[in-house]
Each structure stands twice: as structure tokens, then as C-alpha cells.
Amino acid sequence: MTPLSLSPRETARRRLLDALRREGPMARVEIGHHLGMSPASVSELAAGLLDEGVLVAEDSADQGSGLLRGRPKTRLYFAETLGSVVGVWTGFNRIELRLLDSAGRTRASRHVERPLRNLGGEELMDVLAHTIAAFAEESGARDVKAVGLACQGYVDTRDGIVAWSPVLGTRDLPLASGLSQRLGKPVLMENDASAMAFAIAQRNADLRSGRTACLMVGDGVGLGFLIQGELYRGARFGGSEFGHVRLRRSGPQCRCGGRGCIEAYLADYALHRDAQLIDHRPAPTLLLPGEEAMEAIVEQARSGDTALLNLFHAAGEVLGDAVGILIQTLEPDHIVICGPGTRAMDLLRPAFEAALKSQTIPELRALATIHVVESSMDLLTEGVVMQALRELDLDLARLRAA
User: Fold this and answer.
1) CB atoms within 10 A of CB 75
2) Which pLDDT tens digit goes with each residue over 238-289?
3) Positions of the chain with pLDDT under 50
4) 384 shares a domain with 271
5) CA within 20 to 30 Å of 113's CA: 18, 263, 291, 321, which one?
6) The whole model's pTM is what?
7) Are residues 214 and 196 in contact, defined by beta-carbon separation less than 8 angstroms?
8) Strands, DSSP E only, in 28-171?
9) What is the CATH number of the domain that holds 286?
């Protein structure tokens, strides 16, 4: 999506809309405190947006102990009739879809199992476009304004290119433009770890201050980094490939082609691979094990299986090393460990904490607050949809001709 040039008044409207998008419904006085605007300025901006049908006003009385206290606050929120957005996540032969209205409410969601890894670029884009269009039609959405797409791997968010992905079989794929042409809609792309980081920060205001590093563990290992609640991107406007930082030259095989990467010790496929070697459990039907297979390994370890406990102990040490690297290179205020891999955090934690303590400078370690967030795949589509809605808000901020 191309950034729009805004006038000072339009910039103020944009700030107000962004505050409501990030914080949820607020009264005018709350908006003023949040943005540092005078009551008169907020009221004038809100009046225009209400007249245009962009915002809706709702009285919200302070119930207290059941008695009305003072005048009810009138909260402002987005109208739900401004169009909808489809969020998509592409995994290994999996597609997750979600439909949100302009107020940010989920209207429909779907999980699709579909082979993607061996498709060429054109065929892949045809399949994704067909899947997205069918989902929107079956969900009754005829006013889709944009699509947000979260992908594993290195994603150039500025040009909409998947430079490399472990779950797709082609490189330097112009996925955003290809899908946009097929769907007739603008398409915004994001690295999936960055999408999850943004969604988690949306739900926790504390994580929108300072520097927050979100380490996502699951199918792979990814990193989303936020500064004051906004995603930080590198020279190609992509996310970090932190999971492919090499810890040991002679370590286990990684999906990227190298050896000894952080991901090769921590990702689901790595843990399942090593569990197979330990007890000869059946191989997954797909390269990546499903949640049921991973839960079986975790429960067997919890029941006291010594070999599997050692497996999680070793993984916990790597997680501690990884978080130590983040602390000593980025000095974040917050570190969030998230993703499906948190299912085994009780097994990882003892070795994780010991490794972090032994390998990190104490003064730096004390600066970072570590959070563990149990997270579902919904956060991947939620994060990229919220980003797409914010992009659409840019157009809503523009003043309409009289």
C-alpha cells in the first residue's frame, strides 16, 4: 500500500483514528489525554469523523455499585460498515484465514489444509487467491477492502516480496502484487513472527512502551521487534531471521540448509525429529508435526520419561542462550516468549533460567522483563489484519471534498 501525503489536519485525524485502533473505544477526554490534544481540538476532529460515518458514538455509564455516577461518558469507536479485511497466514501446507469488519470484530475464520510447498510461483498465487476469494464469498463478505498476509521466512514488506521461506518452494516471489492483481484488492504482507508480536502488543499496553522483542517458538523460531509499539524493520523492510542465527557449527540440520541454528534445536520439527530417534515413534505424515503429536511428546516427558526430559532440558538451554543473545545485543525492555512452543514451558524453564543466568551479564539481564504468553495461531492473522486496518485508516483520515 502506498503511503498517502496528509495535511496537518489530516495528520491529526490520522492520530485520532490510530489511537482508537490501538487502544479501543475511548471518550473524547481520554483521547485528549492520550494524544496530548485540547478538548476543543478533539471535539472538532471527532465531529467531522462522526458526520462522515467513520466513527460511532456510544454512551457508557459508570455502573459502579449499581448507581449512576456523574454524566455518562460518550465513547467513540469505528463504524462496522466501512468494509472488511481478510487476514491470511501461510504455513507448511496450511492456510489460516480470518475476516474482520472495520470495527475490528471477527466475522469468520477458517483453517484449510492445502499442499503449498511444491507449487511454482504462479500456481501458488492462483491457489491462494482462489482460497481467499472463496472464503470471503462463503463468509458473506462482499465489501472486502484489503488483504493482510503473514508468511514464514524473510519478507520484504515494502515491495511485497517473499525473498525466502522454509514453507514455500520458490524464492524472490512477488506475492503481494501477484495476489493483488488476482483479487483486485491491495495486499499487505508481514513476517509471521512480526505479525504475532504486533498482535500481542495490541493486547498489552505495557508492551507498547520502550523496546519489545517477541521470540515466537513453534513451527520455526522467529523474532518480532517493536519500538514504542511499532514494528522495527531492516534495510529491506523485512523482519529478523533470528531463528537462523547459528549457535554451533556442527549442530543439527536446519530447514534453511545450515546447521546448528537456534531453530534446529527449538522448533517443533526439531523436537519431534529427536523424539523419533529416542523412542522410534511414528514419523508425522507431514514434514512438520501437528499439535496432537507435539502434545504427546510433552505429556510423555511430564510423566517422567528421562530421555524426553533430557531433550527438553537441552532445548531449554538453547532458549536461554537465545534470550541471552537478545538481551546483550538489543537491550530490550521486554522480552516475550510466545507461540505454540510455550506448551512445554514448564519443561523448558529450569534449564532456560539456569542458562540465562550463567550466560548473561547480570546488569543487562536485570533491565529486561521476561513474559511468557501462551498464544494461538489466531494471533498471526489478528496481527496482520490490524496492520491492514491501520493502512486503510490512512484513507479515512483524508478530508472529503465539500
Assistant:
1) 19
2) 777 899 999 988 899 998 889 999 999 999 999 999 998 887 777 665 567 8
3) 2, 63-68, 402
4) no
5) 263
6) 0.89
7) yes
8) 55-60, 73-78, 84-91, 94-101, 106-113, 144-151, 154-156, 161-164
9) 3.30.420.40
